[in-house]
Amino acid sequence: MLVLLPPSETKRDGGVRGASLDLAGLSFTSLSVQRRQVVADVRRLSRSVSGSMAALALGPTQRFEIDRNRTVSTSPVMPALDRYTGVLYDALDVESLDGVAREFAGEHLVVHSALFGLVRGSDPIPAYRLSHDSRLPELSLRRHWREAVTAALVATDCLVIDLRSNSYIALGPAPSSAVAVRVVSEDARGRRIALSHFNKAGKGRFARALVEAGIAHAGVDSLLEWAAGRDIRLDRTEAGVDLVI
């Protein structure tokens, strides 16, 4: 089982002293060529402050993001699940997981990064700035990642639970057997409303419940049965499942 998460624009600084990016050591080695190309293009872009500000849609207070990209190959690394911050990752709260759950999260939670493609939660990565809609000088991120990411997911031959946003799905659609999760609320008439801000928190809490349970679900039926036993409302739909909160 793989649980696909979107990345976050915000990232924690720091990392393990003396340890830097090892592209060959990241999971999903079939993406190695694509990773090298994107990292190289990001480093080229970082030579130009004005070019980086425009390509990465940075504001005046975000020039530090250019320095992050300039040193992306040599700066300290930390596990991906520790690197990302923001609403989803605050709700996931990996720091408070016990050792068993943390190990499960490192193996089964996968972040879809615009810079690295797919990375497992335990993969060590540096701080960087690159979003799904960033405009690199020599690469279209969508064309660059789309087929390669999908092929990597198909090759895993396991249940994929897709919690990504549409913008990252566009960088690599999951296989047809994947379970797409939509976070919704339900009004008094039973009408469902897709959520925005609470969507991220709901996905973070759901991912945490999955890793705390420590069950590598083999299929949708197993997932739904588990959710019912945990009083988590998952309803099957034509497009996947609705997580009702």
TrEMBL record:
Pfam families given in the database record: H2O2_YaaD
InterPro entries, per the entry: YaaA
Domain of life: Bacteria
Gene Ontology biological process terms in this record: response to hydroperoxide
GO cellular component: cytosol
Designated name of the protein: Peroxide stress protein YaaA
Organism: Salinibacterium xinjiangense
